[in-house]
Write a structure and sequence with these properties.
Keywords: DNA-binding, Transcription, Transcription regulation. This is Helix-turn-helix domain-containing protein. GO terms for molecular function: DNA-binding transcription factor activity; sequence-specific DNA binding. InterPro entries: Homeodomain-like_sf (IPR009057), HTH_AraC (IPR018060), HTH_AraC-typ_CS (IPR018062), PocR_dom (IPR018771). Strands 1, 2, 3, 4 and 5 form a five-stranded mixed beta sheet that branches. The chain is an alpha+beta fold. 58% of the residues lie in helices and 10% in strands. The chain folds into three domains: 166 residues, Beta-Lactamase, CATH 3.30.450; 50 residues; 107 residues, Orthogonal Bundle (Arc Repressor Mutant, subunit A).
Length: 348
Amino acid sequence: MSNPLFNLEKILDIEKWHKLQDSLALVTKMAIITVDYKGVPVTKHSYCQPFCQGVRKDAVLSPYCQKCDARGGLEAVRLNKPYIYMCHFNIIDIAIPIIIDNQYIGAIMAGQIKLRDADPQLEQIVSRPPNVETNNKFKALEEDYLALPTLSYEEVSTTAEMLFHLCNYTVEEAINKNTTIEMYKRALAREIDQPSSVDSLSASDRTYRNIQAIQSELSSTLIENKIKVSKEIRSSNPLLQPAFDYIYHHKSENVTLNEMAKVCHISPSYFSRLFTKETGENFSVFAPRLKIEWAKQLLVTTDQSINQISDELGFCDAGYFIKTFKKFENLTPAVYRNWYQKHDAEQD
């Protein structure tokens, strides 16, 4: 369950991405780093401020920074938008989620700045008990603290939105490009393997056939990439396994987060945090997505009507089922079934 649909390090040319990250950090006056869905950095920091460098090198203070990063990322996923917060030194940071096809695959962590204007009641997500040792360490770094860049809250929020749209667009385009290149390579391989009789075709005919093959396979891959085999769900976190077992064995029920927390004998808030960390998605997104994956299996393996599938999976009515299906797949159940049957016939 921990594996996301997409892997940032495989999607991106990290060297080129880091150059973009450096440029964005320079323009926005913010330190920036990119992390995967587990919070593990996939790039180095761009323009990490001397104060934060000193804090992150300290064995006592660094764990608080890591907790801030982890909490900020989870909140951004929960909100499905950039989350602006204060770290344990009351410095402004931003967690910017990268979400493709409702799948959380990583985040941009930006910030290391101070606010110029009045405090807009931002949350300090990790508190650090004051003591003499940490106070002395702060005094040693106080000059660097005073030199931190200062921005207005409006500048911070505008920058957060810009980074959110830019980075999500860039990653999505990279996924489409990689898929297209892979399809082109397969088409070329097929041409090499074709019988010699095909040589009699004109160059334009062969090109046209290759383009058709690429388009067909690209469409297939973009849909099939989202299809998860309908097997029992195994969680890497044993606390969550009872919930996954219940969901799998009660496909016709519309379970809630509170109900699943009770099944796991933990609080709803703790369940929500664990669930998001485990799957990279909010429960409110995961549950309907899973039903749609089951619906796709029924659409291609049975002759059940749309109404029957809707009823079997516990949707209130077929109209809501179609609306939910289109939200995740960008096409209706009927179009999906027709496309799959046509594609399957062409393969035969």
